[in-house]
Specification:
The longest helix has 19 residues. The protein is 50% helix and 11% strand. It has one domain: HUPs (Rossmann fold, 3-Layer(aba) Sandwich), CATH 3.40.50.620. It has a five-stranded parallel sheet with strand order 3-2-1-4-5, sandwiched between helices. It has seven helices and five strands, in the order E-H-E-H-E-H-H-E-H-E-H-H. It has 181 residues and is an alpha/beta fold.
Length: 181
Amino acid sequence: MKLLMHICCAPCANMPIDVLRSEGHDLTGFWYNPNIHPFTEYRSRRNCLREYAGVIGLPLLEQDDYGLRPFCREVAADIDGRCVKCYEMRLRRTAEFAAEQGFEAFTSSLFISPYQQHELMRDVAYKAAEDFGVEFYYQDFRPLFRDGQARAKELGFYMQKYCGCVFSEQERYLKPGKILK
C-alpha cells in the first residue's frame, strides 16, 4: 500500500517505520507539526528527522510551517482541551495531503505514544479520512514505545521531554513537587 505517515519526531517514528516497511508498505514520511514550540524545539525535531530519513532512505515530504500563531489561535479558546485541536490540525492536513498526492492511506507515528489520547486521535483520523476520501491505516504501536525510545538513544537522536506544545512544556515544569528556580 502507498502509505503516507505523519511523523511527529524521529524517536517516535523509528519503530513504526520498521513495522510498516516489514509489512510491505510503500512508505513516505510527512513532517507537519505546527504545534511544536518554541522554534528551537521545532528545528531540533525536524532536523533530527531529516537526518534519520536520509540515513534509512525514507522519502520525506515536508510542510515546513512553524505554526506558532495558527496553533495558538486554534487552541486559545480551550487550552486545557487543546489536544483535540492539535490532532485535528495535524491529522486532517495529513489526510488532505495524502488525498492530494495520490496516497492510498495515511497513518501517524503519534500512535506509538502512551502519553497521547489514543482513542481521540483515532477518531479524529477516521473522520479526516472520511472527509478527504482517503483511507486511514490504523495500527497501535504503543507496545513498541520503550524499544523505540531505547533505539533512539542508541542512535543519538535528539530526545524531547514534552509532546511539543508550549503548554505541555509548561505542565512539565509545573508538576506537583517540582521546584522552579
